[in-house]
Amino acid sequence: MRIRLLAILFCTLFVAAPSGAATCGGDFNTFLAAMAREAATAGISPTVLNGAFTGVTLDGAVLDFDRRQRSTFRKSFEEYAATRVVPARIKRAKQLMQRHAALLARIEREFDVPSTLLMAIWTLESDNGVGDMGKLPVIRTLATLAHDCRRSELFQQELLAALQIVQRGDLSLSDLVGAYAGEIGQTQFLPSSYIKYGVDYDGSGHVDLRHSVPDVLASTANLLKTNGWLAVAPFGEGTANFEVMREWNRSVIYRKTMVLFAERLTGP
């Protein structure tokens, strides 16, 4: 009964919402209603909208985390890399490179991105899918950040992209969980990147960046390829490919760590 009442409330807000883009701040339910109208205009079905927005509330923990953010990398490259490029990770990554050798070779032929770099990203982002991919409901996280006026336009677009992921059937709402900025999956794509770069590489008919290793690795390679990756070229600091990697992470320290991890995978 409570769910049904929330659904009725949602529908009332949806119908009553004024025209125009959602305005940040103010009453959260009014904001959601405006977002629902915008999403409907973009082709999101009433069923998806009702399931996504009914009962959604602001997440204070997400706002607190977002406001605490400063420079991510307060350590030197050497200090940071020493905590990330560690023997256990290198060992597991090498084992996975052997297990997925045929898949990685196929991706490298098609997208020109070295398998060592893909493995480095996959490991650093989620320990190859066995680490923390985030447990927060993405819709609630993004609605909270979109309602906040500091970067409302950015996160409104991410919220619409997250709804599109559900609309396409790539992930269910129950599976649409992620980190504190709405990042999703084994290599932590924002929803807009999920839509733009996601590749159905296992032929399932859907892009599944939480469970499908082929989709995860091919989509990661596609992001780099689409942004100008140069085939058979170095990717260390100072190279053109190192700048392309900026589309993955703007931090020089993080990118240098990616390069170091990839280099360590070529050794014995």
Overview of the structural elements:
With 268 residues, the protein is mainly alpha-helical. The relative contact order is 0.13. Strands 1-2 form a two-stranded antiparallel sheet. It is globular. 58% of the residues lie in helices and 1% in strands.
* Sheet with the most strands, sense and barrel status: 2 strands, antiparallel
Individual helix count: 14
* Sequence of secondary-structure elements: HHHHHHHHEHHEHHHH
Overall pLDDT score:
91
Q: What characteristic shape results from the CA principal axes?
A: globular
Q: What amount of the residues lies in strands?
A: under 5%
Uncertain segments:
1-19
- Give the C-alpha Rg: 20 Å
Within the largest sheet, what's the order of strands?
Answer: 1-2
The number of strands is 2
Proportion of helical residues = 55-70%
SS-based structural class?
mainly alpha
